[in-house]
Amino acid sequence: MAIQRDLIEKEEIASALCELERALCLRLGKHGYGRFAGPHECYGVIAEEFTKELTDALHANDRASFRRECIDIAVAAMFSYISMDRSAHRDGEPSKPSGPAEE
Prior knowledge:
With about 100 residues, the protein is mainly α. The longest helix has 28 residues, at about 65-90. The protein is built from 3 helices and no strands. Helices cover about 70% and strands about 0% of the residues. The two termini are about 20 Å apart.
């Protein structure tokens, strides 16, 4: 039997993307615009957010903190994605335009 799930509204997606943009701008203001050096640094930042901070929020059963950590992971992933675009090109891989992520 499949789990019955509430549907996500388009407005919720738009709101979440606005929150991601706001959080990314805060991160840039705090840490600057310097790209991550490579995939190992990207992984390290994302892993820290996930394995420590998100897990702590989960174990505390703190939904508000869990949501904030989800945004932090999304910011780390987006910054990593942006950082890797130029470094991939620099490493000889052509930069490819990308569309929406496929499942």
